[in-house]
User: Fold this.
Amino acid sequence: MRKLERIVILTGAGISAESGLGTFRDEGGLWAQHRIEDVATPEAFAHDPARVHQFYNVRRVQAAGAKPNAAHQALARLQAAWPGHVLLVTQNVDGLHEKAGAEVVHMHGELSRALCAACEHRWDSPQEMSVGETCPACDAPAARPDIVWFGEMPYHMEQILDAIQTCDLFAAIGTSGQVYPAAGFVEEARMAGAATVELNLRDSDMTHAFEEHVTGPASEIVPQWVDRLLQGR
Assistant:
């Protein structure tokens, strides 16, 4: 393995599945009961904010009750053992990486945060949000979940792309390879000369783009992968 100095890790919903939080593809899960167009777009919030708030209220309760699994803990261990060298980026909004002790860049927002649609002020959200809640900064009745919905630009993109273009290793864990721009990160890393590895329960839509593939439950394969990285330092 080439010498590693800078590692970028992208995580998706698959890393939290073993903590009891469903992915988009799970049959019978929360997402399967709702169309994305009805609960995860700016248009949906404009059309029926009560439905959108209720959907995220349920997700917030589920996330609050979930515990990080061995995969989350392994990545936190990697960061702690290699301070300043591991950027952890997540598409997840559940907060489980933080519960495990990791530092995370949230590209799709956080369930635990609220956003003012009028002035873009952000604050810690209550457990339940409802229509007409006011912003503590500007008093506008425009509070919404601080979640990046389909059709909106993910957060921290400049920081993430800069890190990918200068990293030695890019890893994607538990991602479907369906949601852009994150699905395109592996191509950015490859063009920059980085090694690439995908760790997933099964092949994703972008598996073909990775040099290395590791399949299996995240709670098993991620700790093993982290151990190999640390042993190879």
The longest strand covers residues 109-116. The longest helix spans residues 49-65. The two ends are 10 Å apart (CA to CA). The domain at 1-20+68-108+154-233 is CATH 3.40.50.1220 (Rossmann fold).
